[in-house]
Design goal:
Blueprint lengths: L6 H22 L43
């Protein structure tokens, strides 16, 4: 395999790497705005425990429109 090391090819690879870096930073969002070594703020648990007073939901939670009944 022969890698093209012409100035134009190197410039294209550098531009693509720069675009990929910018995309990764944009997708990371605010997680990269705090300095290294600073712990993330504690988040609430992903799964909420259901208490005895909570009523379970009925129907399809992922698609609420499917819970509608035809008249």
């Amino acid at each position: 395999m022969n890698i093209d090391m012409s100035p134009e090819a190197v410039s294209i690879r550098l531009k693509r790497a720069s675009q990929l870096r910018a995309l990764c930073l944009a997708l990371a969002g605010p997680r990269l705005k705090r300095p290294w070594g600073v712990p993330a703020p504690s988040a609430s648990p992903a799964v909420k425990e259901q208490s005895s007073t909570d009523k379970p939901t009925s129907g399809n939670v992922l698609n609420p429109e499917s819970n509608l009944k035809p008249m």
